[in-house]
Amino acid sequence: MHVESGSQGATLPQRVALLHRQLPARLEAPEEKLVMTFPHLIVREVIAMEILLIVLGLVSLFYDAPLESLANPNKTPNPAKAPWYFLGLQELLHYFPPVVAGVLIPALVVIALIIIPYFRVNFERDSLWSQRRPARLYGLSGGVLLLILFLAWFRVWAALAPTALIGLLMISIFPSRERGLWGFLIHRTAWARFFTGVHAGLAGLSLAAWIMSWFITLAVILTVVGTLFRGPGWSFVWPWQL
Amino acid sequence: MNVLELKERVVATPVWRSIFRHRYLDSNRNRALTVFSNVFLHIHPVKVPEKSLRLRHTMCLGGLSFALFLALTVTGVLLMFYYRPAIPQAYRDMKELEFVVTSGALLRNLHRWAAHAMVLFVFLHMARVFYSGAYRPPREFNWVVGVLLLILSLLLSYTGYLLPWDQLAFWAITVGTNMAEAAPLIGPKFKFLLLGGNVIGENALVRFYVLHCVVLPLAAAVLLAVHFWRVRKDGGVRPL
After folding, report:
1. In this predicted complex, what is the ipTM?
2. Which chain A residues are closer than 8 Å to B130 by Cβ?
3. pTM score of the predicted model
4. Contact present, A91 and B187 (Cβ < 8 Å)
5. Residue at A59 is within a domain
6. With a CB-CB cutoff of 8 Å, which residues 122-141 of chain A face chain B?
7. Number of structural domains, chain A?
8. pLDDT value for A19
């Protein structure tokens, strides 16, 4: 038996700890340092909200919400556009039949998002080429190629270009030992050293992180194209021609 | 009697003490009480890991989405005082807000830009949660609640889009409902239910108004409560 007492026995209440001989005497110290929520967290939250409200107030003072003429069902504007966050879908409507662009794709996106945690997506977060390299290389190349062919068939150039770019990027970080002139260029030159950091960052990404980044890139590009680059009859225009 | 004495007297009254359970004196006990004796703050634990205070830990995106929801509720309620969901009164009320109501244009601007910002922030919040792996067990279900809240944010913004009843509103909703109509089997029925008819008219305006001002905000408030409660119960995000 072991009796432990605080150093300031006169002021602090005494603590008597009864420890069995086989138990470890020291409890494990908490791993993280804790701070009081008030004020440390609350003050930060209040500051963040105030900055947001100030920015929102300034924007609202200087930029007016749009208001066009009274709704007229007989006068269709050209082009008629949905709210900006649906313009990615409306852009897809230009390439695919409505049931695909308006129903199938959004439904698949929602289902894909919901099942992420239930299919153990990205739990281990191993980097793309950390294991099963040849299988992944063939699978990925095949998948990207099929996707590109599919997008080319429907002429979705705005989605094809970033898909091809991201696919090339994924395959280009495949670890390999290059020799000869090419090896010298990618391993020994200042150019190579400059990009080593970027390469390391990309090589650390997991397959799921690549897919999510691909999805976000596509969503952003399609939304921007639909918002800024589409004019009468959904034809391509420059933003300043709108 | 000077101000400090007055303050001491007020603070000592039974009325004051019935409202505020503890003094403001800076002690750890009072700091703890500030959080857990307050209905709004007790969603937080009394102590948090110092690491989770870092800005890049959450980028404040979830909290700011909620702040925008609150700002939208306040400005939305104020807008309801000036708005009638009828044709053509709805459009006239927009003009009244712009030219007659004191700070009416500012009020509408705040609501509009906050709505756009909320859609953006909720999406960015989702991306942050994905990249930081914060959806992993035991938080799987909260991720699903979050996806539902993203959809609700879009629907809230979308139903509000029709209310000004201008050309922009009318045709944006036309495009959107035509897309929903493409759904096999239920599409046309769903469109009829949503619009209260086959075309966008006054029935559609009233339905969008009720959805926008009552149904969807209530649904969002309930899901937000579940979302926050789950964040608290499932524990904070550990930095990776």
Report:
1. 0.91
2. 116, 122, 212
3. 0.87
4. no
5. no
6. 122-123, 125
7. 1
8. 63
